[in-house]
């Protein structure tokens, strides 16, 4: 059974905070490729940023997600990913029309259930790395709601609840499946 669990969904829906809570409970986590790319590109004056060169950004996110999977292959136990390869390929496919999902993604990459954070306007906030508005975040969420199942993943919507309750929800789902 694959132990790589993706937490995806709407930008600004609490994914990173949820992963921090899972990490605090002793689980291995992998930070979102997009945020790491923005941080790196900004620090070195690069242009592979979603608001400058979105195609280069998406291609770099695919490469980083592949590296994350390879690195995590040596880890034991459940590993939680803040987004992943499907998110990056879905974005590239939307931008370019190329068949990025079928080229780079399979149901073998991650655990069969993908946990999605729904749009949550009350907690959504823009920042230096998240410059897009809520409407764009919702469009991304709706695209992922289609793309994950098209690849054979079951999507599970996370409740709009406390971080602790969301973490318990995920862990209980995994225990039932294990």
Characterize the structure shown.
Helices cover 51% and strands 12% of the residues. With 178 residues, the protein is of the alpha/beta class. The chain is globular. Helix 6 links the parallel strand 4 and strand 5 (154-157). The chain has helices spanning 15-24, 33-44, 54-72, 85-96, 100-104, 134-150, 163-177; strands at residues 4-9, 28-30, 79-82, 113-117, 154-157. It has one domain: Rossmann fold (3-Layer(aba) Sandwich), CATH 3.40.50. InterPro entries: NadR/Ttd14_AAA_dom, P-loop_NTPase. Pfam families: AAA_28 (PF13521).
The CATH topology turns out to be: Rossmann fold
Number of domains: 1
Low-pLDDT stretches: none
Strand arrangement in the largest pleated sheet: 2-3-1-4-5
The helical percent reads 40-55%
- By CATH, the superfamily comes out as P-loop containing nucleotide triphosphate hydrolases
- Reported CATH architecture: 3-Layer(aba) Sandwich
Distance between the termini: 8 Å
> N-to-C SSE series?
EHEHHEHHEHEH
- Cα shape: globular
């Amino acid at each position: 059974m694959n132990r790589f669990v993706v937490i995806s969904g709407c930008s600004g829906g609490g994914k990173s905070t949820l992963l921090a809570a899972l990490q605090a409970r002793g689980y291995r986590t992998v930070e979102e490729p997009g945020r790491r790319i923005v941080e790196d590109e900004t620090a070195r004056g690069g242009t592979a940023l979603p608001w400058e060169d979105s195609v280069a950004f998406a291609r770099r996110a695919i490469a980083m997600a592949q590296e994350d999977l390879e690195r995590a292959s040596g880890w034991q136990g459940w590993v939680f990913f803040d987004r992943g390869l499907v998110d990056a390929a879905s974005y590239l496919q939307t931008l370019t029309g190329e068949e990025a999902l079928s080229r780079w993604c399979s149901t073998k990459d991650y655990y069969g259930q993908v946990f999605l954070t729904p749009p949550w306007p009350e907690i959504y906030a823009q920042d230096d790395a998240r410059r897009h508005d809520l409407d764009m975040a919702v469009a991304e969420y709706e695209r992922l709601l289609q793309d994950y199942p098209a690849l054979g993943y079951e999507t599970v919507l996370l409740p709009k609840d406390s971080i602790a309750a969301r973490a318990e929800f995920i862990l209980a789902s995994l225990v039932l499946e294990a």
